Amino acid sequence: LSGSCLSFFKEQLPLQQYNSWIKPLIFEIDGEKLVLTAPNSFTLRIVQERFLPEISKRALPFFSSPPKIEFRVEKRGSKVSMDHTKDSTSTKPPLPAAKTAKNQNKLNSALVFDTFVTGKANQLAHAAAIQVAETPGVAYNPLFIYGGVGLGKTHLLQAIGNLVSKKNPQARICYIHATNYISGVVRAFQTKNFDEFKQFYNSLDLLLIDDIQFIADKPGTQQEFFYTLNSLIDTNKQVVITCDTFPKEITGIEPRLTSRFTCGLTVAIEPPGLEMRVAILLQKSATNGSPISEDVAFFIAKHVRSNIRELEGALNRIEAYARFHKRIISIELAKEALKDLLAAQNKQVSLENIQKTVADFYRIKIVDLLSKKRTRIIARPRQIAMCLARELTQLSLPEIGNAFGGRDHSTVLHACKTIESLRNSDSALNADFNLLNQTLRG
Ligand code: ADP
Ligand code: MG
Predict the structure, then answer these.
(1) Domain 2-78 falls in which CATH fold?
(2) How many angstroms is it from 31 CA to the middle of ligand 2?
(3) 3-state SS, residue 145
(4) N- or C-end of the chain: fewer Cβ atoms within 10 A?
(5) Predicted interface score ipTM higher than 0.90
(6) Is the C-beta atom of 47 inside 6 A of ligand 1?
(7) CATH classification of 274-347, choosing from 1.10.10.10, 1.10.8.60, 1.10.287.40, 3.90.76.10?
(8) Residue 122 Cβ < 6 Å to ligand 1
(9) Residue-wise pLDDT tens digits, 272-306
(10) pTM over 0.90
(11) What is the dihedral of CA 154, 160, 162, 164, to 10 degrees?
(12) Superfamily name and number for 101-268
């Protein structure tokens, strides 16, 4: 992200402006949030006034939905640059890479197999995770788990760590999010502490690395990770990797690395079906101490379809609402508590409407839009329509893919990324997209 923003503005702005306003910024991804740190409040204000729209646009491909942006002003001496360049001007030597990794990445003891509900959507990933946790380094190495946001990848990763740690308290385990791994590499560069960094990772018994897609377009990190991965696998130390897409679909990662990702076992986690969503709600509400009835669970599950994180969010909201009003949870109460969400759904643009509007706009037939035809004249509008469906409906990637002639979720994701990046480089396409978007939103 940092690289993408920096290189974009470097091209777009006079050098002096770039050096004054953009270069000193630190871009960090924190979950679904973009954290933007400026060296002082003045720079921050300028950035907010002048560069925010472009920064938001650049950030989009790194998130599943438009991210919230949090602004910070750097505390003195606490700068940790994400820039790989050697002339990086850190005022105070940051923490050694390995130490930070140890401190930052404790396992979360709440994320265990016992609380992980299984169903058709995740049973393969679950079974593989259990096997890896029971016989680390023996069964599949690496285990590569991929799937969309909020579907339980981190939960499974942590569950593996917790089980291995329970069975073997001496095991050296590291759970790390890829963005923290990247920061670790950068810090090792800055402090010239590469030996310590390498030694830390190479001495692990179990490396759990989350959301590996973030190392795309970071050649330094990729090289480092390639060595670590090989060294661990060669010595039968278990590595588990999660990612938002199928390994070969990640762009910006060296082929030698993606091919290494797939040399163990690759498993997908799919969005849960209705019954599984109900099972999750029943389990979570029971764990929370306020079990809901099946009727209520079905009601929620029918309306919240995107992922498990959203499902949890809806349940929490209902529980809080019931507590506040001192009422028991019923469908009626669930309706009231989820009022906004349900209203938003009613207002939602339908997929059919998107397909028809895009087809009309480009003067092509809807059947062609849904067909297997791959000529540019059809394929581009199809990608635009998919991207609009992603933005304007609550449908999941597989649901969108399905509605576009039975394509799979990675095709939809690829379409969205392609259109996002074209919107930055092709102003005519961007204008078309905005017009369609506005028309559909009414
Ligand atoms: P991801 O890493 O794929 O984005 P998470 O692992 O963070 O998703 O899951 C989102 C939330 O949903 C977490 O609170 C997690 O505990 C919960 N969750 C995900 N999958 C399951 C499951 N199969 N059973 C119970 N809870 C789940
Ligand atoms: Mg996750």
Answers:
(1) GMP Synthetase; Chain A, domain 3 (3.30.300)
(2) 8
(3) strand
(4) C
(5) yes
(6) no
(7) 1.10.8.60
(8) yes
(9) 989 999 999 999 999 989 899 999 999 999 888 88
(10) no
(11) -160
(12) P-loop containing nucleotide triphosphate hydrolases (3.40.50.300)
